[in-house]
């Protein structure tokens, strides 16, 4: 939903071909509840013998708005002025918008009143570029993602619950290594304590959206694996985990050295 009754000149819109004539193509712009026309000269570059060689009824297309005449209830469109990159990007944004609208209906009911829908959407769009971005972030960060939005607590909870049940969040994985050494009499126990610290404690917990694990490679080397929503977060948590290991073992008289690549075994 754009909140606008008509598309704007120059805008890229998604529609479905619903009729083909000798002079052009009619496109149903569902988002605006309008019908646009692609003149035959705007269907494709070069001479066109048969419009049906380029489009078919029922096909979803991306078109550029050439002109809007509200008095004549007419929207002039172009297919040839949209390149492949623009087409793919616009289709993806359209798909994301469709998903977000479905999530809103799941969160607040299919019979949600338009006024309430718009009010909640407006509150989310103050903080996020799109409803899709808002739900995706809520799926990762939970209530924290919506704390700056002017929403009721019940609405926040409904969004977070729906997001976590329906949004597939892309994650990234990073790996690093830490060499932990202790020459003291309780060396094994000291290393175990450092490993517990690496995985996070109540006072220095790993964020909810991050998965972190530590595994043994070969003395004194341990592998730290982090899965997070983005590389910035993943790298930060990887370094924080290594820092916790270093602090813990040094307090017990040992040493720790962090490195990103696994070291070759010495002969």
What's the gist of this structure?
The protein has about 270 residues and is an alpha+beta fold. The protein has helices at about 85-110, 115-125, 130-140, 155-165, 185-200, 230-250; strands spanning about 10-20, 25-30, 35-40, 60-70, 75-80, 170-180, 210-220, 220-230, 255-260.
What is the topological layout?
Blueprint: E1 12-21, E2 24-29, E3 34-39, E4 60-69, E5 74-78, H1 84-108, H2 114-127, H3 131-141, H4 153-166, E6 172-181, H5 187-198, E7 211-218, E8 221-228, H6 231-251, E9 255-259
Parallel strand pairs: 3-5
Antiparallel strand pairs: 1-2, 1-4, 2-3, 4-5, 6-8, 6-9, 7-8
Descriptors:
267 residues; alpha+beta; OB fold (Dihydrolipoamide Acetyltransferase, E2P); DNA polymerase, domain 1; Alpha-Beta Plaits; 3 domains; 6 helices; 25% strand
Description of the structure:
- By secondary structure, the protein is an alpha+beta fold.
- It folds into three domains: 12-81, OB fold (Dihydrolipoamide Acetyltransferase, E2P) (Beta Barrel), CATH 2.40.50.140; 86-166, Orthogonal Bundle (DNA polymerase, domain 1), CATH 1.10.150; 172-259, EIF_2_alpha (Alpha-Beta Plaits, 2-Layer Sandwich).
- The chain contains six helices and nine strands.
- The chain has a five-stranded mixed beta barrel. The protein has a four-stranded antiparallel sheet with strand order 7-8-6-9, with helices on one face.
- A hairpin with a 4-residue loop joins strand 2 (24-29) and strand 3.
- Helix 3 (131-141) packs across helix 4 (153-166) and helix 5 packs antiparallel against helix 6.
- The longest helix is centred in the middle third of the chain and has 25 residues, at 84-108.
- The termini are far apart.
- The mean pLDDT is 90.
